[in-house]
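Today's session is about reading a structure prediction critically. Students often jump straight to the picture, but the first step is always the sequence itself: look for stretches that repeat, for charged clusters, for runs of hydrophobic residues. Only then move on to the predicted structure, which in these notes is written as discrete structure tokens rather than atom positions. Here is the chain we will use throughout the hour.
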Amino acid sequence: MRSEGSTAQVTAHRLVHCVLDSDSDGLTDALETVVEQGDQLKPYVRDVVAELIQVGATAVRHSVGPDEQPAFAVDLRDASNDAVSIDELEPQVRATIRALLADLNDRPDDVEFQLDLAVRQLDPITGLDTVRRALTMTIALLQWSGDA
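Below is the predicted structure for this chain, in token form.
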């Protein structure tokens, strides 16, 4: 029997493949799976986001040379290409980005802390939005790294 964590992992990978394959019906079905979690919404969204972050971080790590040990950071921009402070972002978005950076910089305790923050005060709409933003970030990292 598959655990909830592995089901969330399957959902995360399905989301990625649906976007990369332009499968809008599959994407809708996968997103509905997230919304339908009821009392398990927070842990499910947390597990989906954690897996999406892992997919994106793995792609970025594979783009780095074997002898390199970089520190990772982000340059956040708005629609007008103006710099945006991470502290100006919505809490779930800010925590998701920080969880990605913690993963890339090999800080597992910080990853866990940020994932917990990403799912605080979640309802089906904010849960869906948190997954959508993590998915968008993951797809961008896969494309940037050439893994898409």
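Discussion point for the tutorial: The chain has one domain: 4-145.
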